[in-house]
Each structure stands twice: as C-alpha cells, then as structure tokens.
Amino acid sequence: MTTTATEDPQGRPGQDPQGRPAREPASTPGASGASGAALAVLPGVLTSALAWTDAHRTRFALPDDVLEPHTQVNATLKPLGELAQLGSTIRRTTAPGTPEHEVAGDLVAYAWGQVHEGALLLELLRAEPFAAYPYEIYAAFAGYGLRHEGFEALARPLTATRAWAHTEQHANRQLGLVNSERRVGVVTHTDAGGVLSRTWLGGLSEPWMFEGSSGYALTHTVFHLTDWGRMPDRVPKKIDGYLRTWLPAWADGCLESGQWDLTGELLAVAASLPGPAPVELLDAVWPVLADVQHPTGCVPETGVPAEDPSPDPYPFIDCYHSTLVTAFAAALSLRSLRQTDERAGKRTGEQTGEQTGEQTGETTPGRERHTP
What we know:
Elements: E1 3-5, E2 23-25, H1 37-55, H2 77-93, H3 99-114, H4 119-127, H5 133-142, H6 149-158, H7 162-165, H8 171-184, H9 192-196, H10 212-225, H11 237-256, H12 260-270, H13 279-292, H14 320-356
Antiparallel strand pairs: 1-2
Helix pairs in contact: 1-3, 1-13, 1-14, 2-3, 2-5, 2-14, 4-5, 4-6, 5-8, 8-10, 10-12, 11-12, 11-13, 12-13, 12-14
C-alpha cells in the first residue's frame, strides 16, 4: 500500500522515530478522484533539483587523464553520461521557453562539450572496441540529435561483429544496448521482445521477491524499453498491469527504508506507463520525496535527510544521481499528470456535447502510438 506524509499541527510533514518523514496509508486503488498533491509539489521539486545540478555542473567535468587505463569510469564518464541522458529527456519533456527546458538544454550542451563533441568518445571506442559503454554514452547524445561522423563510421563495423551480438551481459543491460542501437539508427543486434522476456520484469516475477538489485533492474528495463519514458506504448499490456498493481507496494517499501534514489526511479517508471497516469500513487509518494529534498535542491540516495543548512549537505557522489533522477521523474510525472487531465477534460467536453446534441467533430483521444 502506498503511503503519504503526515503533518504536524503546524502543517509540516512529521517524522518517524528514526527521523524519516512520517507517513500514513494512502487511499486504495479505485478510490475517488485525485487530490492534486503531486501537482502541488512537482514544479518546485523539478526547478530546485535542476538548479542544484546546474550549480554543480563542474563536478561532472571529466579529468585530463580520462583516457588513461587507471581512470575510474564509474566516477567520471558514468556521471557525465547520466547527465546527458536525463538532461536530454527533461529537455524533451518540458515546454519550450520554460526555465527548466533551457537549463536542461544547457546541461546537455555542457556534457557534449566535455566529450569534445564526440571526439573523446571516438578515442574511447578505438581503445576499447569490445566495450559497450562508449556506444551507450554516445547514444544518449545521438538520441538528442548530437552526432559525430567519425564515431559512427567506426561503430558501424564494430556493431556488426559476432562478438558484439554475443556479448555476455544481463538481459536488462542488453535491452539498453538495443535501445542505444535504435537511437543511433542502426539495425539492432537482437529482438527487443526476446530480451525483455528474459528480464526480471518481463518474467512477471513474484512481487514479494522485489529488493534493491531487482528494483534497479526493473526500472532500467522500463527506461530502455520506453527510451527513457519517451515511448510509453512500448510497454506490453501484461507488464503495464503488473506494474500498476505492484508499484505502490514497492514504493512504500522504499520510502519506509529511506531508499530515495530507487523511489525516484520507481516514480519515473510509474510516469512512463501507457494510458492514464497512476494518480493515486504519484499523489501519495511525491509529497514525501519533496520533503526529503534539501532546500538547495539535492536529494540523498539513502538514509535520514540532512538538516545541515549548508549548500552541500551531502558528498557529491552520494546525491548527484538521486537528484538527477528526482528531476527526471518529476518532469515525466508532470507530463503524465497533465496529459491525463487533458484527456479527462476532452472526454468531459465530448460527453457534454453529446448530451446537448452538439457536433464537435472530435473523437475520444486514444493512446498515442509510436513506432520504434
């Protein structure tokens, strides 16, 4: 069951004995209309998280020795690739001309500059032709429209090799590679449907077997399947129903254990489903995560939220990803909720027209269709 934050007599979210935001059960699925709790906090959460990321953009800068064998990819290229991926999705999801749209675009441009407009990724690919990560980072930019001719000229024969097609990796990682190939615009090395069936999520695993690693596996399965929330209709009907049933319980467990990063990813998954937004889930969870967010905009990955008023209450490595994920999930949630409201408004208008005999010439809007 999902839960929401309780409030003290002054109207502020309370805390449990461990210092986490206290919560009370939310309404069960099928209860009456949305409270608007998510929409009340989401614009501020998004703006604040992006502002923190923008203020700390230099922390994503690549070191001079990034091409050296001793350089830690997870501490250098991985954060930059995440900045590019999530920033580009936020840019595409927000309305042109809004501050969030502009900041997200600036962050992607910054990341593109850090990889020397693709030239550095070409050097990585030359040095490690057997590695998938340079290609996946490049695909984050290519999906946004930023391309490097030399990189793609080398990548084409490499991705046509038997070794590329038979790289041994977990199914959700292979699904990510398939999505990267789609973004670059080449023939995928395998069928996405077959890979999906081998994932934890695709197998509709017993929901009580959910834990940290399976949680991140299922969120990334959805991200790769939907191209990071851009194509919700790639989610099969059975998986859609499974997620709508069990996301509330999983999110509740993450809130109870202070897993804020995974909570954000689950919210992004909820906002990436086809059809109407899961309003009750978003209304229940977003106010809690909003309360966890520091006044500067950052969000810790795990644990009791800091009360330190300083500009950097957490080490960068312990909050950059969860802050990016919070912004990403907030942008997707706003889109999903607004689209749901628009569809509901159109249906109401059509029903009113039918009752009064008016002919509007419109049809009830159906699910938007995308082709891979």
